[in-house]
């Protein structure tokens, strides 16, 4: 059987921690009198923490010193982590567990490729850490998506050619990163937003076993 690399983003793909990121960023924005909406939050998908703060400051036309930025970045992460304390397996998005089990049964390479610096504790709390052969997160890379570094590194650690890799992503930047890396891109979300992906599903419940077997080849 062919062995492929199946690489998953974390936030919005495996778990919905995006809502916690939003709450933490909104708290910072409100303190700075910046109106930060769910629509604005779309701009932060797949983007590093530092760049996310810059985007929020730009939205409010706020100038800030590096010292203030560093303080807000620490505060944001502390607030975000406080929301994660009570995470458990119920946070896993519908259909994800079934796909992970199938890939494990088929002896496929499974990796996480995420900008999150909290990937390991999240996978531990949700009880699925053991499904991943490789974890590449924000602590391991220097370039943010759409640079394909995070996915290329995951494929490399799995000893699988990037062209034999499949990426599951919910952000435009993530889909672009997969495409630049010459990997198969599978969008999880809205077709209007993720139209650059090779395949698009609203969520994992729409993904049939036959589709995964087709990707394995």
UniProtKB/TrEMBL annotation:
**What Pfam families does this protein map onto?**
Hydrolase
Catalytic activity reported? beta-D-glucose 1-phosphate = beta-D-glucose 6-phosphate
Q: Where along the sequence do coiled-coil regions lie? A: none
Enzyme kind, highest EC tier: isomerase
Family assignment? Belongs to the HAD-like hydrolase superfamily. CbbY/CbbZ/Gph/YieH family.
Q: Which cofactor does it need?
A: Mg(2+)
Q: Which organism encodes this protein?
A: Flavobacterium psychroterrae
Q: What is this protein called?
A: Beta-phosphoglucomutase
A molecular function (GO) term = beta-phosphoglucomutase activity
- According to the entry, what is the taxonomic lineage of the organism? Bacteria, Pseudomonadati, Bacteroidota, Flavobacteriia, Flavobacteriales
> Mind listing the UniProt keywords for this protein, alphabetically?
Carbohydrate metabolism, Isomerase, Magnesium, Metal-binding, Phosphoprotein
Report the EC code(s) recorded for this entry.
5.4.2.6
């Amino acid at each position: 059987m062919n062995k492929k690399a199946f690489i998953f983003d974390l936030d919005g793909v495996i778990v919905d921690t995006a809502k916690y990121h939003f709450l933490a960023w909104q708290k910072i924005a409100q303190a700075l009198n910046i109106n930060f909406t769910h629509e604005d939050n779309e701009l932060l998908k797949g983007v590093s923490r530092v760049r996310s703060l810059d985007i929020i400051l730009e939205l409010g036309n706020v100038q800030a010193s590096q010292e203030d930025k560093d303080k807000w970045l620490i505060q944001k992460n502390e607030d975000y982590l406080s929301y994660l304390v009570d995470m458990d397996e119920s946070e896993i998005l519908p259909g994800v567990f079934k796909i992970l089990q199938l890939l494990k049964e088929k002896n496929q390479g499974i990796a996480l490729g995420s900008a999150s610096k909290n990937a390991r504790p999240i996978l531990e709390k949700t009880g699925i850490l053991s499904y991943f052969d490789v974890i590449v997160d924000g602590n391991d890379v220097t370039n943010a998506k759409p640079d394909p570094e995070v996915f290329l590194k995951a494929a490399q650690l799995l000893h699988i050619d990037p062209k034999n890799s499949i990426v599951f992503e919910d952000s435009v930047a993530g889909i672009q990163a997969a495409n630049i890396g010459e990997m198969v891109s599978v969008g999880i979300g809205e077709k209007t937003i993720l139209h650059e992906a090779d395949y698009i599903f609203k969520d994992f419940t729409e993904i049939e076993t036959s589709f995964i077997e087709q990707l394995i080849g």
